[in-house]
Design goal:
The complex is a heterodimer of chains A (413) and B (230).
Chain A (H helix, E strand, L loop, with lengths): L3 H9 L1 H11 L6 E6 L6 H15 L3 E6 L4 H14 L8 H24 L2 E5 L6 H4 L6 E5 L9 H11 L4 E4 L11 E4 L16 H10 L8 E5 L8 H12 L6 E7 L7 H12 L5 E6 L4 H10 L2 E4 L8 H8 L4 E4 L4 H4 L6 E4 L2 H13 L1 H18 L2 H17 L4 E3 L2
Parallel strand pairs in A: 1-2, 1-3, 3-4, 4-5, 5-6, 7-8, 7-10, 8-9, 10-11, 11-12
Helix pairs in contact in A: 1-2, 2-16, 4-5, 8-11, 9-14, 12-15
Chain B lengths: L15 E17 L2 H10 L2 H9 L15 H8 L4 H8 L9 H17 L13 E17 L2 H10 L2 H9 L11 H8 L5 H8 L8 H17 L4
Antiparallel strand pairs in B: 1-2
Helix pairs in contact in B: 1-5, 2-5, 3-4, 6-10, 7-10, 8-9, 9-10
The chains are: A alpha/beta (413), B alpha+beta (230).
């Protein structure tokens, strides 16, 4: 049976996997625990779902834990999320106390595994206080921030920072996202998994079936945005862009497909706003898909002529790399990690408004050969820079630096 | 200074070990929104940050036209809209400086000269500020060795672009003479290969992508050795 690493070697290259083995060799047997707040939905859960087995195959004793909490806890952490991305949110003492109590309960439940771990990765703000609540911890702790905290609502950041200062290191997706903390702050962009159901190659028959399932006309141009129903993803702005573009591309269809995530209680509200904006336009398909609808999302991205990710704030925007991996140019909001993935005029276009998005959609649909060239360039770009193997290499580098005290150079050869 | 690769490659000093590398980026938490802030930060920033901003761009994901060969020049052009200073910063050749401190001093000097002539300091918005990043380089074995110079062209052709970065760019701060690993190895061989070393010395590691650089290295080695002028 082919190992997971061998399968990645087929896509990313044998040399890439050999480098992973070299990095992991000094880390063999190390107990590493990742902690986040959900195993379903969102880019973090998807990445961890593959990083853990890969680390294990490399000889690292890696595991994945999630914290549990009630609806109020996740409403509070969603407010944290929004506040860290700059929204003026109100968090009262009761909410903060409950946030800490929920973390204390999780710390008690996970204490044995976390205290004994050689290295603990805490993902995002939800489980951040665990560090101060686990007694007798002996390993290195790293806070992995997946969101854009470049301009946080200060009261929220001020509160959260007290839980972060004792970490041994933190990881941000972009240099622009970094906030001052008293430890090393690594910059590691996230990645996509080319072997996952969401990204693997699909039979055209399966793509056609998904088109049919959602009433999409294969003879009409298709614009797709895949992301949670979240105001920062600007689904209403996408509808505006679609309507502006449709004046010149009358056969255009739009799919807004959002997954469900158990830690996002605001999704229903934004979905209702999106449906209201779509009104009764038969060309707009607003789809709320279950969290495991990976193949459906894969098929929708492959069915698209142009993919749009018109976010106004973005942690990274992995749906951009997903679309690019499928050979699609992306019209993306010029924010966060989208700016790293969409290289203007090469792998797609960066835009600042619904009007700008409409203009670029029209341009691409009227220049088919350019659309295809950009799509091919986008795929090659993702292969070089945004696959899971690069992400894992950088995680292993952080682990090696922290455990072996390396400074500017890590010589494995 | 570190030793050139062939002297650290094991028992046989005449063997050239092909290595590969990757850069890890670490934020320093320091930034600049105008030229004075850039100068002030540059005066005390970690030398690894100077390295990253002069060399690291070659390994980063971009399709940018390499008009400017370091991050300071790029930012002065795109963030401060000062193309004249961007040009002056861009002609700083890091290979000319024996260490990163000298390179830092020269960069500060060029910026201060520009500051002296400015009445008003242009600012860039916060979201376009310059972020100082320092790098950590991870060096890997490729398990490939070259025994004869004639084999070098094939080995380079098959090597990754990051391997080219390691041997042709990073080597300049490792080798005693600040030269690339290939020349350092050739110089220690019995024949010395002066013609080939001269040819390699003429290859500019900037202003082209690493894959173009790889192709130029391969062509230079093949033409020189096969032309009998090694």
């Amino acid at each position: 049976m082919t190992s997971l690493l061998e399968r990645y070697a087929e896509i990313a290259g044998a040399d890439v996997v050999d480098q992973l083995r070299q990095l992991a060799e000094p880390l063999r047997g190390m107990r590493v625990v990742h902690v986040n707040s959900t195993k379903l939905g969102g880019g973090v859960a998807e990445i961890l779902g593959k990083l853990i087995p890969l680390k294990r195959e490399l000889g690292i004793d890696a595991s994945w834990e999630t914290i549990s909490g009630n609806g109020e806890f996740f409403t509070t952490t969603k407010a944290f999320h929004n506040g860290l991305q700059g929204e003026r949110v109100t968090l009262n003492d009761v909410q903060l106390r409950q946030y800490e109590e929920t973390n204390a309960a999780n710390a008690a439940a996970l204490e044995d595994v976390l205290a004994e771990a050689d290295m603990v990765f805490i993902h995002d703000p939800q489980p951040a206080p665990l560090l101060g609540m686990v007694r007798g911890r002996r390993g290195r702790w790293i806070w992995r921030c997946h969101i854009d905290v470049s301009r946080p609502y200060r009261p929220v950041w001020k509160y959260l920072r007290q839980h972060l200062t004792d970490y041994d290191a933190s990881i941000f997706s972009l240099a622009e996202f970094v906030q001052a903390l008293p430890h090393d702050q690594y910059i590691i962009p996230p990645s996509i998994d080319p072997l996952s159901e969401k990204n693997e190659d699909l039979d055209p028959v399966e793509i056609a079936a998904v088109r049919e399932q959602f009433g999409l006309d294969p003879d009409r141009d298709l614009l797709v945005q895949v992301s949670r129903f979240d105001r920062f993803k600007d689904p209403v702005g996408v509808i505006q862009a679609y309507r502006l573009a449709k004046r010149f591309c009358p056969t255009l269809q739009l799919v807004l497909a959002g997954g469900e995530a158990t830690d996002d209680p605001e999704g229903d509200i934004v979905l209702a706003e999106t449906e209201a904006a779509a009104a009764d336009d038969p060309g707009i398909h607003v789809l709320r898909l279950p969290p495991d609808a990976h193949r459906t999302i894969n098929a929708l991205q492959r069915a698209a002529d142009v993919v749009i990710q018109k976010s106004i704030r973005e942690g990274f925007g992995l749906t951009v790399a997903e679309a690019m991996w499928k050979g699609k140019p992306v019209v993306g909001g010029a924010t966060g990690g989208i700016r790293l993935q969409v290289v203007n005029h090469h792998t797609g276009f960066l835009v600042y408004s619904p009007e700008g998005a409409a203009l670029r959609i029209r341009y691409l649909l009227h220049h088919r050969s350019l659309l295809e060239q950009m799509g091919e360039k986008a795929r090659v770009f993702v292969r070089s820079h945004f696959l899971l193997t690069r992400h894992l290499r950088e995680y292993l580098t952080v682990m090696l630096s922290l455990t072996h005290g390396f400074k500017d150079r890590i010589e494995l050869a | 200074m570190r030793e050139p690769e062939h002297e650290r490659s094991g028992e046989d000093e005449s063997v050239f070990a092909i290595k590969d590398c990757a850069l890890a980026a670490i934020a320093t938490g320091r930034g600049a929104q105008n030229l004075k802030e850039l100068r002030d930060e540059l005066l005390t920033i970690d030398p690894a940050s100077v390295y990253y901003h002069f060399w690291g761009g070659l390994l980063r994901p971009t399709f940018d036209d390499p008009r400017y060969n370091n991050d300071f020049a790029r930012w002065v052009h795109s963030g401060l809209h000062n193309p004249a200073l961007a040009e002056r910063l861009s002609v700083i050749d890091p290979c000319e400086f024996g260490d990163l401190e000298s390179l830092r001093r020269e960069t500060v000097e060029v910026i201060e000269e520009a500051l002296d002539s400015m009445e008003v300091l242009p600012w860039t918005p916060r979201e376009r500020q310059f972020h100082f990043i320092r790098s950590q380089i991870v060096v890997f074995s490729t398990h490939q060795v070259v025994r004869e110079p004639i084999e070098l062209a094939d080995a380079i052709e098959a090597a990754s672009v990051s391997s080219i970065f390691y041997h042709f760019v990073d080597a300049r701060r490792r080798t005693p003479d600040g030269i690339d690993d290939f020349r350092a190895w050739l110089a220690d061989l019995d024949d010395g290969y002066p013609a080939l070393r001269a040819r390699l010395a003429g290859i500019d590691p900037f202003f082209q992508t690493l894959s173009e650089l790889r192709a130029e290295l391969v062509a230079a080695i093949r033409n020189t050795i096969e032309g009998g002028a090694s």
